[in-house]
Design the sequence.
């Protein structure tokens, strides 16, 4: 599990920070106790018994509230799993608002408990009352009220389907934008290679990341070319062939060793190098919404809207070259690129297949194609959407009432005209 995907790292850091604050406040309290420094008189609110009573009440209230926060967190995860799918667990575990809230309550409890232990009153000794630490503990506990109110509001917002789908779409936009960092590389012709070495997967799982610069250097050392058969996001079995290589110098064993270090394989897909994964999460939410158990077509419509905007964002960028060259311009690595039509199919095929009995969802699909048609920059992009329009038209059931069939047909005409302006209702191109 990634260090970003957990509920314990941020709380652990905040608790560690509270230990540092405790050491600092205790040093002032000890100095005031021996007369080294003088703190404001209004800090002194009584004896050690008063301080212990206040700290005990604070620690008890905080640990009770922390239990409430953890219960809300578990409930949120349960709702996310049942309604949106278990793959969204990772998103909630990465949520910084949840992590900071848990950390704030845990740090306050630890600080109050340590301060409670430090307040002493022994016979024949001057009692030690760390009133500066007590005041810090009290103010920290008061701030927890605001944190609790924020957390309840935060959970109410992040559990809404509109927020979830919009956040996933934003992840897709960031992944697409990040993938364009390679746009500046040249586009030489893709050479045909005769495989001398089969580069195998060292373990089973999903390809999460490929370090192409390292592979370019390694291929240059053996004067070879590496061609990938899989892309990030695809599942590979242990011992399966992930790539093939042609080597003109040195044995391929060195390339295999570097290959294993350059390819990251994990138990789950990630959005960073696999932009299709974000779309698959939106598709999963839509399919769950259309299931008889949930029967929430409005959620499915929301997913279609954001899928359309994601495809619009993808269409803005030109097609990347699958080749990676060294400093001399020689092709060293050929990656497997996820083509535009493949992404469109992954986004709309599953929803289109379940929309055949839903005039509402079928119309929204076609209206979405119409709205994003002006952003398609190439014939390939327009063709990918046109294929979706035609397949949706063919798949729509003929059992719908006449009014619904008319609305579906009108949406079909709008989509086809948007994608093929010279099209006529007779089905001819003028």
Sequence:
């Amino acid at each position: 599990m990634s260090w970003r995907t957990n509920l314990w790292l941020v709380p652990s850091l905040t608790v560690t920070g509270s230990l540092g604050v405790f050491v600092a406040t205790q040093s002032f309290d000890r100095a005031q106790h021996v007369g080294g420094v003088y703190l404001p008189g209004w800090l002194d609110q009584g004896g050690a018994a008063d301080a212990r009573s206040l700290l005990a009440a604070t620690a008890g209230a905080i640990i009770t509230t922390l239990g409430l926060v953890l219960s809300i967190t578990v409930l949120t995860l349960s709702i996310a799993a049942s309604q949106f799918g278990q793959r969204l667990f990772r998103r909630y575990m990465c949520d910084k608002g949840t992590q900071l809230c848990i950390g704030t309550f845990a740090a306050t409890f630890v600080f109050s408990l340590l301060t409670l232990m430090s307040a002493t009153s022994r016979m024949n000794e001057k009692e030690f009352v760390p009133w500066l630490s007590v005041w810090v503990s009290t103010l920290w506990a008061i701030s927890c009220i605001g944190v609790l109110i924020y957390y309840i509001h935060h959970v109410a917002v992040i559990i809404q389907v509109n927020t979830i789908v919009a956040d996933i779409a934003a992840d897709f936009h960031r992944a697409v934008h990040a993938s364009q960092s390679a746009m500046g590389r040249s586009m030489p012709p893709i050479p045909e290679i005769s495989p001398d070495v089969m580069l195998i997967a060292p373990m089973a799982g999903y390809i999460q990341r490929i370090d192409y610069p390292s592979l370019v250097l390694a291929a240059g050392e053996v004067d070879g070319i590496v061609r990938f058969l899989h892309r990030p996001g695809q599942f590979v079995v242990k011992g399966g062939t992930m790539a093939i290589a042609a080597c003109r110098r040195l044995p391929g064993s060195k390339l295999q060793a570097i290959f294993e270090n350059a390819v990251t394989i994990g138990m789950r897909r990630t959005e960073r190098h696999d932009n299709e994964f974000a779309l698959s999460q939106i598709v999963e939410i839509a399919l769950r919404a259309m299931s008889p158990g949930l029967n929430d077509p409005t959620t499915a419509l929301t997913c279609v809207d954001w899928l359309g905007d994601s495809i619009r964002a993808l269409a803005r960028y030109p097609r990347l070259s699958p080749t990676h060259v060294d400093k001399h311009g020689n092709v060293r690595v050929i990656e497997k690129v996820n083509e535009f039509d493949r992404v469109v199919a992954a986004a709309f095929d599953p929803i289109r297949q379940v929309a055949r009995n839903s005039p509402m969802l079928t119309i929204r699909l076609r209206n979405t194609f119409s709205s994003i048609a002006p952003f398609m920059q190439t014939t390939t992009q327009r063709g990918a959407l046109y294929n979706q329009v035609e397949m949706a038209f063919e798949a729509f059931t003929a059992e719908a009432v006449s009014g619904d069939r008319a609305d579906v047909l009108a949406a079909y005409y709008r989509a086809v005209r948007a994608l093929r302006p010279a099209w006529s209702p007779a089905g001819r191109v003028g």
